[in-house]
Amino acid sequence: METKAYLEIIENAASAIETVCGKAEVAVILGSGLGGYVDALQDAKCVSYADIPGFPVSTVPGHAGCWWVGTLHGKRVYMMQGRFHSYEGYDQQTVTLPIRVMSKLGVKTLIVTNASGGVNTSFAPGDLMLITDFINFSGKNPLTGPNLDEFGPRFPDMSRAYDRQLQQMARDTAAKLGIKLQEGVYCWFNGPCFETPAEIRMARVIGADAVGMSTVPETIVARHCGIDVLGLSCITNMAAGILDQPLNHEEVMETGNRVKDTFRKLVDGVIEAM
Ligand code: HPA
């Protein structure tokens, strides 16, 4: 898509959201299983993605399509119930449209959450993981094409993709709440098929602790426009080939569901601490 047309889409989506929700300083992308967290918002309002021009309607079960806003621990917070994945067929501009919209609407801090497969064999399904860095193994980059100068530089730095202060806040919050928090590198595979056992062995060799199908494009675009990012992952299953059993989406949903209350407490604690 041409830059001018894309900038217009960003502008129109932002103004549709601002009309209903106003501005906010913090945004949370709710991954699989975490959608219920919108209950925590006071004076909550939401816009369906269907009513936001340029937004596609999410196709994955467990990912509703709604942009929420409300007050949480004295902060104005957006929550995205449902995100856009590259494997659904959306181009990178569409996958990361919400992040550019957040930037337009004044978001300074983004919390990205997701479900992932554990590559590190010391992890167990149900563990929560602080994302310390990412590996982009998708062959895609959302910043491909003409640079959007009004958002950020051509060659943005990724040496601190996940903000150190926010990482420490997550560690302190987990310790305070007695929540076990693993740490590691999240590797983005495009999906939608789960990885092969050979790919998972490779991922381990190149330094991955978890694999998943989201989060990295969002992180890249957020960093491009100067938004600080915290990444939190729920290890919903051991990645392919680690256990002698097939993988399926039901297992991902089941584990996500089992630990959602703990996951939610952690995210909530971090927002309170911010
Ligand atoms: N691989 C990729 N994405 C995932 C997985 C996995 O094993 N589990 C949850 N999301």
Describe the structure concisely:
The longest helix has 25 residues, at 249-273. With 274 residues, the protein is of the alpha/beta class.
Number of domains: 1
Strand content: 15-25%
Q: Which class of secondary structure composition applies to the elements?
A: alpha/beta
Tally the helices: what do you get? 7
Task: Give an overview in words.
With about 270 residues, the protein is of the alpha/beta class. The chain has one domain: 3-Layer(aba) Sandwich (Rossmann fold), CATH 3.40.50.1580. Helix 1 packs across helix 3 and helix 4 crosses helix 7. The longest helix is centred in the C-terminal third of the chain and has 25 residues. The mean pLDDT is about 95. Bound molecules: hypoxanthine. Hypoxanthine binds next to strand 5, strand 8 and strand 9.
Descriptors:
274 residues, alpha/beta, Rossmann fold, 5-stranded mixed barrel, 7 helices, 9 strands, 24% strand, binds hypoxanthine
Topology:
Layout: H1 3-21, E1 26-30, E2 42-48, E3 66-72, E4 75-81, H2 92-95, H3 97-104, E5 109-118, E6 128-136, H4 164-177, E7 181-188, H5 197-205, E8 210-212, H6 216-224, E9 228-238, H7 249-273
Parallel strand pairs: 1-4, 1-5, 5-9, 6-7, 7-8
Antiparallel strand pairs: 2-3, 3-4, 5-8, 6-9
